[in-house]
Amino acid sequence: MPADYHTHTPLCHHAEGEPEAYVDTAISAGVSEYGVSDHAPAKPEPFDDWRMLEADLPEYWDWIDRARNHANGRLPIRAGLECDWLEGCEDWITELSRRYSWDYLIGSVHYLDDWDFDNPKWLGRWANSDINQVWKHYWETYGRMADSGLFDILGHPDLVKKFSYRPEGDLARFYEPVIERIAASGKAIELNTAGWHKPCNEAYPDSRFLELAAEAGVPLVISSDAHSPNEVARDFPKAIELAKSSGFKETLLFEARKSKTETL
Ligand code: ZN
Ligand code: FE
Ligand code: FE
Question: Is position 5 within any domain?
Fold first, then answer.
């Protein structure tokens, strides 16, 4: 079973549970490794109400240490962050990446300018948006994140579909240019199972994106984006099937920001 590297902690104010409980679920699910990747601090602070502050980082490492102590060698516990790709964030991400010994960093696009478009709080804004324009903006932003080379894993690629606002027609016109940029970056994408539990009712990304990414040789990880212990490794058997049927044969494991492959 692949690793589950995309999981959260209560420090982001919208996840729950103790590290011991997350690790217990990871062990009983049989994942090969467990990784913690809470919403990283963003500047200027306070940036929003759904992430840890810079001052929380020591407590975050205490949380990871508790997970490691509890695992006690039964499975590797990796340390990561889910960072937001924001206009002008490069220096801060670089500083964060040097300050601690992370095993991997996940980059995610949750913001288009000042709009955290995946936040249900602003659902009304979707109804008044030009969907085609939002999608263009999203994928252009995602492409710039890939070009930056700052992240090991590019998070939930088509999160923009979360509330089921999708343009008409074949979506490959959005996917192809960005997959080219991701392939050139050499970074991995994730197959994030949380989408199956959101209004879009599909994994992130969809099978069309996965097929194109596999064809382009983009590496893959599978992750749950767990915000509570019972969500660790959720839907992994279904995700493995989807990955295989899309053309993937392996996933990546990370340690100290270096990867190796594991057969699916
Ligand atoms: Zn979250
Ligand atoms: Fe996210
Ligand atoms: Fe997340």
Answer: no
